[in-house]
Amino acid sequence: MVLGMRGHTAASARSAGRAHILATGCAELGVGLRTELSSGHAQWMAQVAGAATETGAMGGFFLQRIGAYVDLHSEAILPKGYWARLVDLGTEDAKEVEEALNRDGIPMPPPPEWPEVPVATAPGTVHTRFGVIGDPHVGSAKGDSFFLPTIEAINDHAVDFTVSVGDLTQNGREDFFQQVRAGLEKLDAPWTVTLGNHDMWGGGTPAAVGLERFRRVFGAEPCQEFRSERVRLIVLNSADPRESPFPPFDLLTGTFTTDPKESIPGGTFSAEVASWAAEREYEDIPTFIVLHHPPYPYLGFPALVFGLDEASTRVLEELVLRVRAWGVIVGHTHRCALTHLAGAPVLEVPCPKEWPFGFGVVEVSDEGWAYNLHPAGSEELITRASFTANAVFRRYARGPDEARAFSTAVPH
Ligand SMILES: [Fe+2]
Ligand SMILES: [Fe+2]
Fold this sequence. Notes:
Blueprint: H1 2-5, H2 9-28, H3 35-49, H4 52-55, H5 57-74, H6 80-104, E1 126-133, H7 141-156, E2 161-164, H8 174-184, E3 191-193, H9 210-218, E4 224-227, E5 232-235, E6 249-250, E7 255-256, H10 271-278, E8 287-290, H11 310-323, E9 327-330, E10 337-341, E11 344-348, E12 358-365, E13 368-375, H12 379-386, H13 391-398, E14 405-409
Parallel strand pairs: 1-2, 2-3, 5-8, 8-9, 9-11
Antiparallel strand pairs: 1-12, 4-5, 6-7, 10-11, 12-13, 13-14
Helix pairs in contact: 2-6, 5-6, 8-9
The structure holds fe (ii) ion (2 copies).
Residues 135, 167, 196-198, 292, 332 line the site of one fe (ii) ion (FE2).
């Protein structure tokens, strides 16, 4: 449907055939389809791919790569004949996309831009301000170039404290954790952190060492309550220590990489985290919940398995209701987004190293709160980095204006 709307008529017919193969395969395996989720996922794909006039050959490229993701991940599950047919049809898509790119060329990234929106203001008198750093990914080239500028920019905002929402490191290496700690120690105010999926494997270690390294380096638990005088954060660890059954998938090449398998990208609460969450009580103080993964169903790439699992989302939902959380703040998706869970706003905070290269500041009063995204570095740094952000990625990361400038009265 999405392909058809974009004018890829033949690919659209092939895609219907591919969906039929998958549906038959699932039915034979006794796996039920959740059709109520497919329209949300299709809407997301259509929004990111854009019309041919908006993203050129890049939009078709993105849709084909999402298809390649399905092919590679379903090989072990589908009967051989089905999988071969799926791949045959998919190969045609890959050819078509390559021809279009050869014919039209790879579109130039759009000029550098900051997605400016009017500043959102909290109702009432603000008594607390805190910084939110999305996934820093220290240990990656771009992560390193944005980390310290982000710290400096947060200091300029004179916040009361700062939280970083996991994926602190690119791959959980101990020296990267140390680098994160050294950077955060440059903050003028207190700070806290939790774990993300990228932190769980130590860059080729035979087992998950993230939790142990986190404890050693930060001397703290990734699951804790953090308080300032007038705000309470409940910080949860949703990073899953299990090894991914698949190697990392490279969206650019549409193939599995030869990098070591790391933690599965989706999030889950361990039994300990779930029971710790169940012990949190309501207190008469503005309370925010912070974790790495967005709640289920996460319908962005790749559908469903990238966010917090369904059972953990129920735990989160109960927690939101029990403590009457004012908001839930997450990272992981490297995009700006705003959804709701049990009546509380859920904000996805983008990571400083990806377009639009920002970090969040939350302002809290007795009557409500506001969130604004701010540039994570100098104009020069952002301008330079913007050349790595193509039109499709910007459509993915931009989100609606209220996901970058948001305010609300107390939600409960
Ligand atoms: Fe992540
Ligand atoms: Fe991340």
